[in-house]
Amino acid sequence: MVLMRALRDMNLPKFVFEDVPLFLGLISDLFPGLDCPRVRYPKFTDTVEKILKEDKYILSPDQVDKVIQMYETMMTRHTTMIVGPTGGGKSVVIKTLIKTQIKLGTPTKVHTLNPKAVSVVELYGILDPLTRDWTDGLLSSIFREINRPTERDERRYILFDGDVDALWVENMNSVMDDNRLLTLANGERIRLQKHCALLFEVGDLQYASPATVSRCGMVYVDPKNLGYHPYWERWLLNRDSEYEQKEFGDLFDKYVPDCLDFILEGVVHGRPVGPRLKTIVHCTSLNMVR
């Protein structure tokens, strides 16, 4: 049972929506007749649900489970990537995890940066070839700050919110592996401390090398798990007028699902009428509802 739970809980966060049933089927074939319930963290889970309600989000079991998967992955990895297209709820998962840790008594601070917004030199720093003076970059400055010693039980994270590609991330490989060392161009080495971690919020990994991906814990957030209904329900509940809520609700149910089926699937009232429509800019169902 322990082996089954380990195989399932360590691999389930990595799968896309369609692959989850296949994986669970393989697990059940490998361990026939064995029912292994998901490990639950009662206090943590209750706090996650409370945070989502306080932030006026619609409570979704799939999203709560993604927060728990992120928490479990970060317990075993000091570098974690949360991957998925826009509209899957990646930002909500990260923010909820941080707020939950703070509420449970673990102060957590996050430094967010877009690594593609600056050049590699501006990111890591530069050594003047003439004067040999060192100038810290954005990342090296933050890295130095979060790794200062602390006596408190706290967490400090760097969140890379942007594309992962070999141009800048290869320099982080020695930080992601067991060495946990960032080596700068001036020869200085800074070790990632136990209270620190790296997070990546990224749409896809098409530009990331296998060397980088293999060093990270992966949590895949599929928009199909969340869908557009929670966003719509939240918007509707925030309308002050009950009349508006009723009328908008009726009009939405009458028009929007059928329009989305026609645009995205080429289906009208459950019957295929042709190929899906071609859009100039790729849009998810959530994008269209927004």
Automatic annotation (TrEMBL):
Residues 2-91 form the Dynein heavy chain hydrolytic ATP-binding dynein motor region domain. Pfam families: AAA_6. InterPro entries: AAA_6 (IPR035699), DHC (IPR026983), Dynein_AAA1S (IPR043157), P-loop_NTPase (IPR027417). This is Dynein heavy chain 10, axonemal-like. It comes from Limulus polyphemus (Atlantic horseshoe crab). The gene is LOC111085384.
